[in-house]
Amino acid sequence: MAKEKEIGIVIHWYDKIKVAVVRLSAPLKIGDAVKVRHGEDEFDATINSIQVNHENVKGGKKGEEVAVELPQKAKEGSVLVAE
Predict the structure, then answer these.
(1) Is 16 a member of any domain?
(2) How many structural domains comprise the chain?
(3) Which terminus of the chain has fewer CB atoms gathered within 10 Å of its CB, N or C?
């Protein structure tokens, strides 16, 4: 099994709109399949929307903070890894 690549860490979660703010440690783009992991809990997600400063973008670069829509709650401290 290939080593998973960490993409970023959730630093904030907006419950009403199901959006996580993620500090990226690797590039992320629309269409990417990721796992969201927090302790024993994890779920799969496909990135359908990325925003930087409330502007829709096609992707984010390492070091950026981006907002991504996720299908379920991602607690602060959750890690996004590439599938």
Answers:
(1) yes
(2) 1
(3) N
